[in-house]
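In the design runs reported in the main text, the only information available to the sequence generator was the tokenized backbone. The following block is the verbatim input for one such run; it is reproduced so that readers can re-run the procedure and compare outputs position by position.
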């Protein structure tokens, strides 16, 4: 009788330990799944936030370009004014600490407009 009770006790204890190990493993599995799902959602939200920030910056740049374009268009500058402004911009670039200056491909057009402006100004001086 005593041996039977000890055997039953050992069987019940083994089944309890088995069930406890199974429940522990299931709990760890669920915890790992929840952690992975949280990390995935965090990564998605971070990427969405970065994408929205990039879009906001690009929209602001586009608006700035549009505003500048509209202001220039409203002012209706002549070729001479554009040439003078281009030279002023080149002068500011040359004042920097750069060791090289890249001259735009349309520089010949700018210099041509300046020579035309020079002729007009010299013509006005000769008349006056």
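Verbatim output:
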């Amino acid at each position: 009788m005593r041996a039977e009770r000890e055997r039953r006790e050992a069987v019940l204890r083994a089944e309890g330990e088995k069930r406890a190990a199974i429940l522990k493993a299931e709990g760890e599995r669920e915890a790992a799944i929840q952690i992975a799902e949280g990390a995935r959602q965090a990564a998605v939200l971070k990427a969405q936030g970065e994408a929205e920030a990039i879009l906001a910056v690009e929209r602001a740049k586009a608006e700035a370009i549009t505003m500048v374009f509209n202001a220039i268009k409203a002012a209706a500058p002549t070729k001479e004014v554009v040439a003078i402004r281009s030279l002023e911009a080149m002068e500011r670039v040359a004042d920097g600490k750069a060791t090289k200056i890249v001259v735009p491909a349309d520089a010949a057009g700018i210099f041509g407009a300046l020579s035309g402006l020079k002729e007009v100004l010299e013509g006005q001086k000769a008349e006056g």
